[in-house]
Structures are given as C-alpha cells and as structure tokens.
Design goal:
The structure is a single chain. The protein is α/β, with parallel strands linked by helices and 405 residues long. It has two domains: 202 residues, Nucleotidyltransferase, domain 5 (2-Layer Sandwich); 174 residues, Nucleotidyltransferase, domain 5. Helices cover 38% and strands 23% of the residues. Strands 1, 2, 3, 4, 5, 6 and 12 form a seven-stranded mixed beta sheet that branches. Strands 9-8-7-10-11 form a five-stranded mixed beta sheet, sandwiched between helices.
Length: 405
C-alpha cells in the first residue's frame, strides 16, 4: 500500500493546523489527534504555539495588502518565504511539545489572506468572486516532509460561494447542542459569528462576518499609542464613547447587508482607520475617546448583527467568545451589557483554547479532506452546493514509508 493510500484509509490522524489571521501578528500552530468524522469526530489538542512575525516580515505582509504598495514580484517571493516560515513554525511547535515530526501525519494550512473580494467584480468581462492566500503549501510539505492541504477557500469560491467563513463546520461539530441555541463569536481582525440553533443540523446553521473586530482598534492603537494593540482595553476604558460618531459609523453599508456576507482589510483596513481618525480629530476627541469609540463600534456592530439577522428566528441562550478580542476587558464588558440577559462566556469555559481554535479548525478541515467530507456550508457562504475544500501537496520524499503512531 502506498503512503498516500494508507493516509487516506486511516480513521485517526495527528494533524497540525496553521492559521495566520488579518491581525498579521504571527502564525498559530495547533497539533491535535483527530479520530472519526462529522459529528462522530473526536479531537484532542496536544500542542499549541504562536510564532510572532519578525517585524520585517510583518511589514512586508502588510504592505502587500495595499494596492498602492503591493508588487507582483514581492508577492511571488513572499509566497515562498511565508511557506518556509510556516514550516518552521510547525517544527518549533512540535519540538516544544516533544512530538517528532514523523509522528505528524498531515498539515492543514489556511495561509495568509492578501486579498478577499467576496462580492462579484468584473475581470476580463466576467463577473467573479475572488480570494487570495499565500504561504505555499508545496513549500510547507517539502520543508516538513508532511503532506499539506492548503488553499481551502477556493473550493467554495469555485461553486459560487464567498469562500468565507469556513469555521462554521468546526463550530457545528464541536459545539452543537440539543437544547441550547449557541452563538460562537470569534473576534480576530474581523469579527464573525456562527449561529447553532438548538437541536439543528448542519443545514440549519448560519454564519457571517459582522464587521471589524480588533482591526480598527489595533490600527488606532498603533497610531495613537505606538503600540500594536490596546492592552486589555485599558486606554479605551478611560475614555468616553462619542455616541454621535458611533451612530455615524454604524451607518456603513456593510452593516446593513443581509447574510451571507464576509469582509476584510479591503473594507475596514488602514484607509477606514485613517478616515475614522480624521473624523475624531475634527471632533477634538482624546486618544482614549477614540479608542473607546472604536471598541464600541466592534461591540455594537456585533450586537446589531444579532438583532437584525439572528434574534428574530433564533434568540440566543449563550454567546461564546474566542479570538484575541476576548482579552479586551472593556470590549467584553460592552458585549455583556448589550447582550444581557444572554450569557457571555469565553471559549475556555467550554474546554477549548480560544487562541488555538482557528488553527485547530484547519487541522479538522484537512482531516475531513482526507475523509472525503465536504466542509463548506452553502447556506453560510452562498455556494451552489457542498464542496471538498483544499488542495493536497505531497513532499518529495512521500514515496518512501514513514513511521506512524
């Protein structure tokens, strides 16, 4: 039996998941032992580590997200460079956990999104959706010697979907409940929510991006505090929310769009933050007031999305929060106030590391690719139907037998 045939036939695998999000702060790696499939999937997290980007790599990544500073030549080089960095991150995580690389059967890598265009745009006279992630899976596979699945979003794009969000499959498998309606909120650079109706199946779930998560807050922190983020929301907590400016910000067209919808740095990135700063300066707001208002924008846009698109059909019992935003005490307190009497909990209260969740998700998606299971949710992404997400890259040495565990 060939190594690939053996890998496809396995019911249990040790899989490393790699995630680089819109915050562009580093690479998350989760290593997990996965067994079974769909709602019979069991998951044991064995290791998690975040490897921060060196400042020059982070600056280069951020520059390539802006049309005025991006370069085809630079992107081509970065695709390989980032693949090497991600491979190194897997090696570091495995080494720290005492897991030999040859005991990892598979890698699932989200890559790093440089561009996401979920709404149809014109290209050579055709209307297309598009998304673009870099961090070559071929390089990761070659550098680690481990089969790697990447480019997950394009499978959904190819059947008419927006390619996002992809976490809902994982949310359903891990968190569905027979009696509770649960909202799974992830506050990364962008905030997204998954709705799991009590007792519902995969076709009953709803998920979409609600708008900015940490992205605008972090951009203002960089400009006003010369720090990458507002630690714990401590500066925002000393400011006053400008309610008039907040109301103006909440009139942004994205917030009015019904799901399915997704967004990114193209809408709420540097240009948006610069415009917000100009408006705040015109209103003579202090740095603390600006951060308080930006943090309130995240909280209120999440709550408005709940009121407009979720609550009428599925009143929530609990809001479960993951992502870096859950470390922002000011933001979490705003959410608790807005959502009361709905309970608000961090993901850790449910036995899972919130920091590891997205990386773990892509380990699960890679495992299910090997199982032949479609992992997009057409009702969520707008796709015409189910799709097997991801493409497989094999290491050059994969023709030789590998040790299994």
């Amino acid at each position: 039996m060939t190594p690939l045939a053996h890998l496809l036939r396995q019911r249990a695998r040790r899989v490393a998941g790699i995630m680089s999000g819109t915050s562009t702060d580093g690479v998350d790696v989760a290593i997990a032992w996965l067994e079974g499939s769909r709602t019979n999937l069991t998951c044991q997290l064995e290791a998690f580590h975040t490897v921060p980007y060196p400042e020059d790599l982070r600056a280069t990544l951020l520059a390539q997200t802006h049309p005025e500073s991006s370069s085809v030549a630079e992107i081509s080089q970065l695709h390989v460079c980032l693949g090497r960095f991600m491979a190194s991150a897997v090696k570091k995580t495995a080494s720290q956990a005492g897991i030999p690389l040859e005991h990892i059967h598979l890698i699932g890598s989200h890559g790093h999104t440089l561009y996401h265009h979920p709404e149809p745009g014109t290209c050579a006279g055709e209307q297309v959706h598009s998304t673009f992630q870099i961090g070559s899976p071929d390089v990761i596979a070659a550098e680690t010697g481990i089969p790697t699945i990447g480019d997950f979003r394009m499978g959904d794009i190819a059947v008419g979907g927006q390619g996002a969000p992809l976490v809902p499959y994982f949310d359903y498998v891990y968190f569905h409940h027979p009696k509770e309606t649960r909202l799974l909120l992830n506050i990364g650079g962008i905030a997204n929510v998954t709705v799991l109706p009590a007792g519902g199946d995969l076709d009953a779930i709803q998920a979409f991006d609600t708008g900015p998560g940490n992205m605008v807050i972090d951009a203002l922190s960089q400009e006003l505090l010369h720090r990458p983020y507002d630690p714990g929301g401590s500066h925002a907590s000393r400011g006053n929310i400008d309610l008039d400016l907040l109301a103006e910000l909440l009139r942004h067209p994205f917030f009015q769009l019904p799901p399915p919808k997704s967004t990114g740095r193209e809408v709420f990135g540097a240009a948006y933050a610069h415009t917000l700063l100009e408006k705040a300066h015109q209103r003579h707001l202090s740095a603390e007031d600006m951060l308080a208002t930006a943090t309130a924008l995240t909280a209120h846009s999440i709550y408005r999305a709940y009121c407009d698109f979720i609550q009428p059909a599925h009143p929530a019992d609990v809001l479960i929060v993951s992502g870096g935003g859950r470390h922002n005490a000011f933001l979490m307190n705003l959410l608790r106030t807005l959502f009361a009497p709905v309970r608000v909990h961090p993901l850790e209260d449910y036995g899972l590391s919130a920091d590891a969740k997205e990386a773990l998700c892509f380990a699960v998606l890679a495992h299910e690719w090997m199982n032949g299971v479609p992992t997009n949710v057409p009702r969520v992404t707008g796709a015409r139907g189910p799709a097997l997400l991801g493409n497989l890259s094999l290491p050059p040495t994969f023709a030789t037998p590998r040790t299994s565990s």
